[in-house]
Amino acid sequence: MTVTARPATWTPTRRVRTSLRHVPHPPFTLSFPTSDDQPMAENLTNMLQMVDLIRCLETWLIDRGRLNHAVGGAQFIYNPRTRRDNLSPDVYVALDVEPGGRQAWLTWREGKFPDIAFEIASPSTQENDVSLGPKGKRRLYGKLGVQEYYVFDPGAETPDHPAHDPSLRAYRRDARGKLMPVRLLKSGGVRSPLLGLEFRPEFMTATGLRPAGMYLRALDPATGIPVRVSEETEAVLTVAEAALTTAEAALRVEAQGRQAAEDALAAALAELETLRRSSS
Fold first, then answer.
1. What CATH number should be reported for the domain holding residue 112?
2. I need a labelling partner for 269 at 20 to 30 A (CA). Which of 90, 96, 137, 251 fits?
3. 98 and 188 in one domain?
4. Is residue 1 part of a domain?
5. By C-alpha distance, which of 233, 159, 168 is closest to 203?
6. What does the alpha-carbon distance between residue 222 and residue 278 come to, in Å, rounded to a whole number?
7. 236 and 202, same structural domain?
8. Are 142 and 203 within one domain?
9. How many percent of the chain have pLDDT more than 70?
10. CA–CA gap between residue 141 and residue 163 (Å, rounded)
11. Domain assignment of residue 124, yes or no
């Protein structure tokens, strides 16, 4: 998302007439816009990438009992120094904060800027995302306290045509408070010390909703298995439900066969008893 500098809106409150004087209520109320009415992503692939990351990060943290966190995206995060200028990361993670959603992130109320920021880049935003210039996001995120910063361009490469520059760039805050580049692993991914995850570009085939292409996956470093995105979870549930249906059918057949065997045994025993009585 682009860097914005949209000011908060000052709205005068009503005055109430009492006798011959105007007695003002508290003079001003400060409101903070929560949207710039712009699309959340430039294309479907970028939007799906944002949704994938948010869901996977939520799943990963919750499954590990790290409940005091906030994961979101495409929200205004206000600069605590001016309380007017804001940034809007495509995806962010804040650790050790009150859980739950926010319409906007008011840094001075939360006590800090989010710890991790992601930008899903495109040709029109890539340069600004990694720039250290006055309005460059890498510089601004570092200045505001981001510990880890990831920039991923889904359109930078394909399996058959690798990019000249890596599609994933990672930065980590150093002792001087600057976001410095992190060397990628041989896999092309990078590990997050704060999350205990590996982020790695991987090719995903097309589904009913998802275009085929390179996506940034979140993987468990211990197993190398990606955290499932929504359609993968649905596919696993579908397979599990089919297996359950098959097992239930087999149990019914087995129960029917057992009942038939029990009936046949009872009939044989009854016939044997009849023969014994007739022979005596």
1. 3.90.1570
2. 251
3. yes
4. no
5. 159
6. 75
7. no
8. yes
9. 74
10. 26
11. yes
Residues 194 and 249 placed together within one structural domain of the fold = no
- Please give the backbone phi and psi of residue 52, each rounded to the nearest 5 degrees, phi first: -55, -50
The answer to whether the CB of 198 falls within 8 A of the CB of 226 is: no
Residues 186 and 249 occupy one common structural domain? no
pLDDT digits (tens, 9 = 90+) for 119-178: 998 877 888 898 888 889 999 999 899 999 999 998 876 555 555 567 999 999 998 889
Domain that holds residue 256: 230-262
Task: State how far the Cα of 258 lies from the Cα of 241, in Å rounded to an integer.
Answer: 25
pTM of the predicted model over 0.85: no
33 neighbors 9 (Cβ within 8 angstroms): yes
pLDDT at residue 38 tops 70: no
Q: Which residue has the tokens 């016939």?
A: 271
Question: Based on the domain organization, do 253 and 181 belong to the same domain?
Answer: no
Report DSSP letters for the chain, one per residue: ---B-PPPEEEEPPEEEETTEEEESSSEEEE-----S--SSSSHHHHHHHHHHHHHHHHHHHHTT--SEEEE-S--EE-TTTSS-EE--SEEEEESS--S--SSEEHHHHSS--SEEEEE--TTTHHHHH--STT-HHHHHHHHT-SEEEEE-TTS--SSS--SS-SEEEEEE-TTS-EEE-PPPTTS-EEETTTTEEEEEEEE---SSPPSEEEEEEE-TTT-PBPP-HHHHHHHHHHHHHHHHHHHHHHHHHHHHHHHHHHHHHHHHHHHHHHHHHH-
Per-residue pLDDT tens digits for 208-255: 888 899 999 999 999 999 999 877 655 544 555 566 566 667 777 777
Burial zone of 244 (CB within 10 Å; 0-12 exposed, 13-18 middle, 19+ buried): exposed
Domain total of the chain:
2
Question: Which tokens is 242 given?
Answer: 């089919």
Cα–Cα dist 13/29, whole Å: 7
